[in-house]
């Protein structure tokens, strides 16, 4: 674990003296993996040179042999590492991977975002202080980059990639579509036009709410999905009873309601899915490449 090239996490030529237990570790992550408590990086005061073993005040160069402890050093986070264009963000309270000029700190979201998201993202107050809704691990201080969904919620980039790969196309928190789905809604339009419902279901309608635009409306019932009249999305959920045409009567309405409630094969938690069923999920799996092309990211921290 202790070596002149650091550890699996960082490239450095010193060990940190943990302020909590006094033990020497290459980094706080190595410490936390071995101990039953966490190291407070901000309270680190001393380091040991990996070359001459001199214990000294935390600084960038060894006071005894002058070895460079790290190309980058932050005297707030006590972070030593190779140069990755890091910078310390005071509002975030930690070091970020830069370069600084490619990022800005959003005051409402309270984290650093790529410059191309300035004025081009939905703000959610203190969003990075919430855990990733997929893995339930911390996002703000994670060394894994974060992905900004259209709804403004954050996921770890790796968790988002897993979602895309498995066809889970909705935000786990609010059910909003996780990327642009217009092409897939067009595909469902075509499939519905080629797949008329049996006579007893024709004219049946379902009350729905759209997970993308929050519109409440009544849509024609179809097993492949119910379309929002507000934005054209099939990412919808049942929002009330089902009505049938006079020819079908109450029995058809009951069957349609049961089918609508059971058509949530591709849905996640949060109500009986009406339109976000298996077809939409299959379309989402086919759109993985599109989802990746449209990724919006923050950068990981480095400390």
Characterise the protein shown here.
There is one protein chain. The protein is an alpha+beta fold. Strands 2-1-3-4 form a 4-stranded antiparallel β-sheet. Strand 9 and strand 10 form a beta hairpin. The protein is elongated. It has 3 domains: 70 residues, no CATH class; 79 residues, Herpes Virus-1 (2-Layer Sandwich); 102 residues, Rubrerythrin, domain 2, CATH 2.20.28. Helix 3 packs across helix 5. The chain is built from 6 helices and 15 strands.
Which features does this protein show?
303 residues, alpha+beta, Rubrerythrin, domain 2, 3 domains, 4-stranded antiparallel β-sheet, 3-stranded antiparallel β-sheet, 20% strand, elongated
């Amino acid at each position: 674990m202790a070596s002149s090239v650091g550890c699996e996490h960082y490239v450095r030529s010193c060990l940190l003296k943990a302020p909590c237990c006094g033990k020497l570790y290459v980094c706080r992550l190595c410490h936390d993996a071995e101990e039953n408590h966490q190291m407070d990086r901000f309270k680190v005061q001393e380091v040991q040179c990996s070359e001459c073993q001199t214990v000294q005040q935390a600084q960038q160069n060894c006071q005894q042999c002058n070895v460079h402890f790290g190309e980058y050093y932050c005297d707030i986070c006590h972070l030593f590492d190779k140069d990755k264009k890091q910078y310390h963000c005071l509002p975030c309270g930690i070091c970020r991977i830069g370069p600084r000029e490619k990022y800005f700190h959003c005051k409402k979201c309270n984290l650093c975002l790529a410059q191309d998201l300035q004025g081009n993202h939905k703000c959610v107050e203190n969003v990075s202080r919430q855990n990733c809704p997929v893995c339930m691990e911390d996002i703000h201080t994670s060394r894994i980059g974060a992905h900004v969904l259209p709804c403004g919620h954050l996921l770890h980039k790796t968790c988002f990639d897993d979602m895309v790969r498995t066809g889970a196309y909705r935000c786990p928190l609010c059910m909003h579509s996780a990327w642009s789905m217009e092409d897939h809604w067009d595909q469902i339009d075509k499939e519905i036009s080629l797949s008329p419902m049996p006579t007893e279901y024709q004219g049946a309608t379902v009350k729905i709410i759209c997970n993308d635009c929050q519109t409440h409306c009544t849509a024609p019932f179809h097993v492949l999905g119910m379309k929002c009249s507000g934005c054209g999305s099939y990412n919808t959920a049942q929002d009330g009873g089902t009505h049938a045409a006079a020819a079908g009567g109450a029995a058809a309405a009951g069957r349609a309601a049961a089918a609508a409630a059971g058509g949530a094969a591709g849905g996640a938690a949060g109500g009986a899915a009406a339109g976000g069923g298996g077809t939409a999920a299959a379309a989402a799996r086919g759109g993985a490449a599109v989802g990746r092309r449209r990724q919006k990211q923050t950068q990981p921290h480095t400390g």
